[in-house]
């Protein structure tokens, strides 16, 4: 039985999994749309939505928390706190959408596009 076991491992160790989520979050913030597999897009959604909620109140503490998660990527943090924060200021949540796009040709993995609303 798999009670109280959450999250996917993606066949990676902890550091590799965290860097995968960090890189996907940075790419989504910078490009506002990323094509990836469905499980990865489902796992990146809560991470990015928490970052957008964090950026809606622009304080030094919130900026440092965003820098800590995004690995000192100044471009991503700047876009997060300027462009995305003012775009979603009135929205209470649900900043991203996942659109399934079919299956990858090589291994038939289900693919999707995650993008900002």
The overall pLDDT, averaged over residues, is: 95
CATH superfamily membership: Ribosomal protein L17
Terminal-residue CA separation = 37 Å
Strand order of the largest sheet: 1-3-2
CATH topology assignment: 50s Ribosomal Protein L17, Chain: A
Structural domains: how many: 1
Instruction: Provide the succession of SSEs.
Output: HEHHHEE
Rg, rounded, reads 15 Å
What is the CATH C level class, in words?
Answer: Alpha Beta
Poorly predicted runs are none
User: Can you count the beta strands?
Assistant: 3
Largest sheet: 3 strands, antiparallel
CATH architecture designation: Alpha-Beta Complex
Strand content: 15-25%
Tell me, briefly, the overall form: globular
Task: Output the number of helix runs.
Answer: 4
Helix content: 40-55%
What's the short story on this structure?
The protein has 117 residues and is an alpha+beta fold. Helices cover 52% and strands 17% of the residues.
Q: How is this structure best described in words?
A:
The model has no long low-confidence stretch (mean pLDDT 95). This protein has a single domain (14-116), classed as 50s Ribosomal Protein L17, Chain: A (Alpha-Beta Complex). It is an alpha+beta fold and 117 residues long. It contains four helices and three strands; from the N terminus they run αβαααββ. Helix content is 52%, strand content 17%. The chain has a three-stranded antiparallel β-sheet with strand order 1-3-2. The protein has helices at 14-31, 38-55, 60-70, 74-87, and strands spanning 33-37, 96-103, 110-116. A hairpin with a 6-residue loop joins strand 2 and strand 3 (110-116). It is globular, with a radius of gyration of 15 Å.
């Amino acid at each position: 039985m798999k009670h109280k076991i959450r999250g996917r491992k993606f066949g990676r160790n902890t550091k590799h999994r965290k860097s995968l989520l960090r890189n996907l979050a940075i790419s989504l913030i910078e490009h506002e749309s990323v094509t990836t597999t469905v499980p990865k897009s489902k796992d990146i959604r809560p991470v990015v939505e928490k970052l957008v909620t964090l950026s809606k109140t622009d304080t030094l503490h919130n900026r440092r928390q965003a820098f800590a998660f995004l690995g000192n990527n100044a471009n991503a943090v700047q876009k997060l706190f300027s462009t995305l924060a003012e775009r979603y200021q009135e929205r209470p949540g649900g900043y991203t959408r996942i659109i399934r796009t079919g299956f990858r040709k090589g291994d038939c993995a289900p693919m999707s596009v995650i993008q900002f609303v």
